[in-house]
Every structure is written in structure tokens, then in C-alpha cells.
Amino acid sequence: MHQLYINTIGCQMNVYDSDQIERALTPSGYSRTDQLEDADLVIVNTCAIRSKAEQKAFSFVGRLAKLKRRNPDLLVGVGGCVAQQEGEKILARAPHVDLVFGPKAIPRLGRLVERVRLQGLRVVDTEDTDGFEELDLASGFRDDGQVARFVTIMQGCDNFCTYCVVPYVRGRETSRHPDRILEEIRMLVAGGVREVTLLGQNVNSYGLKEDLGSFAELLARVDRVEGLARIRFTTSHPKDLSDDLIDAFARVCKLCPHIHLPVQSGADRVLKRMNRQYTRADYLERIGRLRRARPDIAITSDFIVGFPGETEADFEQTLGLIEAVGFDGVFAFMYSDRSVAPAAQFKGKVEDALKKERLQRLLRHQEVFTLRASKGLIGSFQDVLVEGFSARPGLAGDHAGARQWSGRTPGNKIVNFDQDTDCAGSQNVHPGLLIGVRIEKAFTHSLWGRPVWVEEKPGGSKGDTCHAA
Ligand code: SAH
Ligand code: SF4
Ligand code: F3S
């Protein structure tokens, strides 16, 4: 057996792709290790979204030169979005790199690695082929005990937001055939997975170009997979959020009440320059409709601060939007120039120091709402899907200091609870089980509670009560 080490940088798509990389190389005799020193092949799965992510990739690739000097047989591959963007240039920049491949080359990876290993070639494959490229599912999944997994349903993006590199590195938007998606989910569920997150840059437009049925239809099919307990998806683009999808939050039983709806800015003139194709009012109107369809829905978002031309007044509009919505949580980023994206040429660049200041102000402003959303759950009963042990010790009286289990609520909030509790059945807790927890404490990024019931028949009862006759 050869040992494969993968360093994954970037979004959930890259997390999914890293698993695909592992699957693609299993038939060539590679098995994944988490020890860099043991590896025969190291792959860096890179992200190009902001310059920091790109620097992180190059700095890790740089470190591998030393490792390769010690072990000349070591093979080094660079995959992902930086690989797609830079191609051959990576070979020139880093003489110890053997292989450069884009996200669409993953199904061809077995052959590419053979060429490197057996013929001693340095290989580049950044071909952007049409259609959804996928691996043969027969190569199976390694059961690593994860109970919540990502499933990619779309590749690429057609939206061309003016700051964003994704359409250039991931190519045109392409949807995966629903039968393949269902097949993969059934296989995951057979291996113990109970929650899937469907991934695409803009899931709202799933299937439309290829006439594969709508995203709402796909959700209805996934909902009927026996043994699956929860469905999530990301990301939705506010401009395409349809009534059908909003209704899905009321209709699709296993769909968790959480939506990540990146808004980026609260100022219309910034949204226009970003080419987001919605206004602040459109966004707020959609939030209203979502809350009417599903009053308990948790809403999270992404923001970019310091977009070229963003004034203090624009930024205050963003703070105002944060107040108007009351998000459960947000991610915020300082605008980063990407040379292929049009905004790199825009005038009115905002100084780094001011971007930093706005980022801090935004995060401080949001903190109140994040805590308010968590505190609002104190006293409530939440279904928690147990994912594993938490890093923190227990909190409850006699049991303080013992280990804690960790899982998520339907609204995607992390809940920890003590391993030793008085709840009947809690001795048999394991990842993949649904537990009813009474929430007693709220922190900014997690909740703490006491189990009050434990699912009796794991892998069945709760998820499937949805569709009981
Ligand atoms: N498809 C998703 C986002 C994918 S990228 C969507 O449209 O919402 C994830 C986040 O990175 C974006 O929501 C945005 O907030 C941020 N981002 C993208 N390009 C960026 C850039 N050039 N500088 C800073 N942040 C950026
Ligand atoms: Fe980037 Fe916009 Fe596409 Fe999201 S929708 S991936 S931000 S271009
Ligand atoms: Fe990064 Fe590529 Fe994802 S640029 S955010 S890894 S699609």
C-alpha cells in the first residue's frame, strides 16, 4: 500500500473533492494517512478565493521541498482552484512539484499519478471539460465514522460576481444527474451517514440548464431516502431564491431549518458594482418570506468589507442590514483583489487598515445577534445529531470534567452535552444517534444542555417518522 496525505484548503467543495481524490487513488493502491511524514504522495487541494488562501497553499507547497530532499521518492501534487488558475506556472515556480491538476481532472487522477510514478513525467491536467465529471461510484467510500457528509450536486458558477474567482477556476455551472446524487446518498446512508449537505455555488439554479428537474424536486427525492435523517444545502444565491424553494422549508420533512444566504453588502450601490443582481430591499423581502414559511429558520450570511468604492455610508448600510435581519451568525471577509476578476481593475480601493477596522466593527456588531440567537434557545428542546466528542470537558455538577459529546441542532448550532448523565439510554450514545437535549447554557459559538431522550432505533425511527404511512 502507498500512503496518501491530503491537505485541504478552502470551501466545502474542496472537502468533498479531497474525498474524491482519495477514492480516485484507491484502485492504484493508495490509502489515506493523517501523518505527513508517512506519505508517499502529498496532495495540496488549494483555494484561490482570497490572496491569503492562495499564500497558504504556496507556503505549504514550499515546505514540501524539504520533505522531498529527505525522501526523493516522495510525489507532490497540487490540485484545486489555484492549480486550475496557475497550471504550468506551478511547475516552473516549484521544481519539486510532480503533478498539477484542476478539480475536473479528479476522475482522471489514477492515470495521471501512474504517469508520474511509472514514467517519471511531470504532468499538468487543467482541462475544462463540458458536463459534470464524476468518479465511478463503484470505487466506494472509506467509512471514517463521519455521520454528516457533503454531496456535490453542481460544479462551477455562471454568476460572475465582480470580485470572485470561482467562475474562472471552476468553469461553467453544470448540474449532476439526480440519479447519481441519489445513488451516492443511498450508499453513504448504508455506511451510517445520517445527514447530507448538498453543495453547489448556487443550488437554486440546480438542473435548470440541463433540464434535470428543479432543486425543489431534487430535495423531495432526497427526502424519501430511507434511513437519512437530515438534509442541508449550501449555497443559495438571493437573486434566485424561488417560492418553490422557500416552500420546501415548510414541506420537505428532513430539510433542516437553516439557510446560508450570502448578502455581501447592505448598500445598493455596492451590490450593483458587485453584480449581485438584487437590492437590499429584495434581500429583506426574501428573508421575510422565508420566515413566514418557516418561523424557526436560522439565517446565516457572508459579507465582504472594503469592496472598491465602499464608503463609510455604504458600510453603515451593511451594519443596518445586520440589525434589520438579526442573523444567527455571519462570515465576513476583507475584500481581496483577484487578478482575473473585474473588480481588480475597479477604482476606489480601500486601504487595508480601514478594511481591518470595518471587519472588526462588523463582527462586533453581529456578536450581539449571534448571542441573542443562542440565548433564545435556552429552555427549548432540540434534536441533536451526535457527531463525536467535543474538545471541551463536561460542565454538569457531579459529572464536571468528564467528556462531552458534540452535535448540531436542526438550525446548525453546536450543542455539547456530558457523557455521563442521568438520562436513560445515554450510556449508549454514539455518533449518528439523535438525542433530545434541553438547552441550559448559551455561549457565542455553542450551546450546552442535558439529554432528555435518546433515539431507540438508530438509523431508523426519527428520520423515517417523516414518511410513515
Ligand atoms: N457561491 C457562494 C460563495 C462562494 S465564495 C455565493 O455566491 O454566495 C464564499 C465567500 O467568499 C463569498 O460569499 C464571499 O463573501 C467571499 N469572497 C469571494 N470572493 C472574495 C474576494 N475576492 N475577497 C473577499 N471575499 C471574497
Ligand atoms: Fe462567486 Fe458569485 Fe458564483 Fe458565489 S455566485 S461563486 S460569489 S461568482
Ligand atoms: Fe476556494 Fe475554489 Fe472553494 S476558490 S472557496 S476552493 S471553489
Taking all Cα atoms into account, the compactness measure Rg is 23 Å
Quaternary structure: single chain
The strand order across the widest sheet is 2-1-3-4-5-6
CATH architecture of the largest domain: Alpha-Beta Horseshoe
How would a crystallographer describe the biggest sheet? 6 strands, parallel
Low-confidence stretches: none
The CATH class of the largest domain is identified as Alpha Beta
List the bound ligands.
S-adenosyl-L-homocysteine, iron/sulfur cluster, FE3-S4 cluster
Give the helix level as a range of percent. Answer: 25-40%
Looking at CATH, the homologous superfamily of the largest domain is: tm_1862 like domain
Provide mean pLDDT, rounded. Answer: 93
Number of domains: 3
The CATH topology annotation of the largest domain reads as: pyruvate-formate lyase- activating enzyme
Beta percentage is 15-25%
